[in-house]
Amino acid sequence: YSNLATVLQDLGDYAKAKGLLEKALESAVRNFGPMHPKIALDYSNLALVMKDLGEFQDAFILISKSRAIFEQALPEGHPYIVRVKYNYENIKKHIT
Predict the structure, then answer these.
(1) How high is the mean pLDDT of the chain?
(2) Residues with Cβ within 8 Å of residue 74, at least 6 apart in sequence
(3) Whose CA, among 1, 46, 53, 78, lies 20 to 30 Å from 20?
C-alpha cells in the first residue's frame, strides 16, 4: 500500500494516496505494534499527504506522532529523525 500511495501522491492523486496510507498504517499497527519505526514512517507519509490536501491540523497531529516514535526508537541524528523534524516544522508553519 505504501509504495503505491507514494506513486499516487507523486501523480497528485492525494485522496487515493491517503486511503492507501491509512490501510498501510492499520496493517502495520496490527503487525508491528503502535511504537515501531514502521508506524512512524507511515504516520509521516500520511501527514505529508494530509498537508498536500490542505488538512494541516491533522497533518500536524500525525507528524507529531511520527516524531515521538522515531525519537524514542532511533538514535539521535538518525536520518529519519532529521527528516521528520524538518517536516514537522514545515507543517507547523501552516497552523500557527
Answers:
(1) 96
(2) 37, 80, 81
(3) 78
